[in-house]
From TrEMBL:
InterPro entries documented for this protein: PCMD, Put_CMD_sf
Protein name as it appears in the record: PCMD domain-containing protein
Domain Putative carbohydrate metabolism: 141-360
Organism the protein comes from: Chitinophaga defluvii
Signal peptide positions (record): none
Lineage: Bacteria, Pseudomonadati, Bacteroidota, Chitinophagia, Chitinophagales
One Pfam assignment: PCMD
């Protein structure tokens, strides 16, 4: 066991020293990719194609596209861009952004903006689109949700589990249709050394952020995507089979506890580092559901009433918002095979299958 722990710590050290600048070599770098592009009034993530040098963005239906500015433009290391973030542009026609690499080479991107239609849905809410990723740690491949690696509409914790060669979230074909299968997984004793042996299969709007100095070891979900409208609730099909024995992050049995799944939607107003919760819809259940069941949940706008379970209430750093004053900016949708998965608690083998998520207006 001591040898295994030594190997694990060594692997962690390698990750810590290789997870920063990946485009480094002797001399100036030629990297000139746009990694993230965010506009005022943006609805959903930008569709960035670094090969075709195109970016397409949808904004709210009432946005003034003659006067919009980029609030964030993330680039390759040491690259610069013109126009810069914060400079208003007229997007009634495509706007060009020129990225200059450290070596002086340039790439010209065409940014196209369109207004959002009525009753918008989150892209890929039928969970039919998946792409293949090469696992650099294990030498194998796995499936991740989305059209490609630039698609950050939906995320999973797979990138964190891939170091161990395990993939808690996968596509599953049922009666010819692709759904998302989420399974709470035993990550092994080495993960238990860090208190992360129990990994809940999950799926959420956003992405798994492993960009910090610790890489995947200290990575965590970045929840939510830009969103501008006010749905009344959501609908989704699901199946659920809870595991038998609930365990913690060390792999120890948690007595007198049964596992349950979480399915919830939060509508938010985000400004700088502040988040106001505008609406909540939350389902937590532990009953076995062997065939498809359609779950319909209303969104409750404003502060939740007295007697609401604690897990549905505000998280640290949140406040309640008022939909009459605060416009929605983001939506967070979360599916988890174990409701205590964020604390690395759950029953190994708990399986939640979801399909055809829909916002109801």
């Amino acid at each position: 066991m001591k040898k295994n722990i030594t190997l694990f710590v060594s692997a962690a050290c390698i990750l810590l020293t290789t997870s920063c600048v990946k485009e480094d070599h002797f001399g100036p770098t030629d990297g000139k990719k746009i990694k993230e592009f965010v506009l005022e009034e943006q609805a959903g993530n930008a569709n960035i194609d670094n090969d075709a040098k195109t970016i397409s963005i949808t904004v709210s239906a009432d946005a003034n596209i003659k006067f919009l500015k980029a609030t964030k433009i993330a680039l390759s290391s040491f690259a610069t861009v013109k126009p810069a973030a914060g400079e208003p542009q007229d997007f009634t026609q495509p706007v060009t952004y020129t990225v200059t690499g450290e070596d002086g080479s340039t790439a010209v991107f065409k940014v196209t903006v369109s207004r959002q239609g009525g009753n918008p849905q989150i892209p890929n809410s039928d969970f039919n689109k998946w792409y293949t990723i090469a696992n650099e740690y294990q030498g194998d491949e796995y499936q991740e949700i989305g059209e490609n690696a630039n698609d950050k509409t939906w995320g999973t914790g797979n990138v964190g589990a891939a170091m161990m060669g395990l993939y808690p979230t996968k596509p599953q074909t049922i009666s010819g249709n692709i759904a998302a299968s989420l399974t709470t997984t035993d990550m092994g004793a080495l993960a238990g050394f860090l208190g992360k042996q129990t990994a809940a299969g999950n799926l959420f709007t956003g992405f798994f952020d492993a960009s910090g100095p610790g890489g995947v070891i200290t990575g965590k979900p970045a929840f939510g995507i830009p969103f501008r409208t006010t749905p009344n609730g959501f609908r989704v099909k699901y199946q659920y089979a809870p595991g038998d024995i609930v365990r913690d992050g060390k792999g120890q049995v948690v007595p007198n506890m049964k596992d349950s799944c979480d399915i919830y939607v939060l509508l938010e107003h985000r400004e700088e580092n502040k988040t106001k919760r505008l609406a909540t819809a939350w389902f937590r259940g532990g009953d076995v559901q062997t065939g498809w069941k359609t779950l319909d949940m209303p969104l409750v706008y404003g502060e939740l009433p007295a007697g609401t379970p604690a897990y549905m209430l505000l998280k640290t750093g949140e406040t309640w918002g008022d939909i009459t004053k605060d416009k929605p900016t983001h939506i967070t949708v979360v599916f988890s095979a174990s409701s205590r998965g964020d604390d690395f608690i759950g029953a190994w083998g708990s399986n939640l299958i979801v399909d055809d998520f829909e916002l109801v207006y």
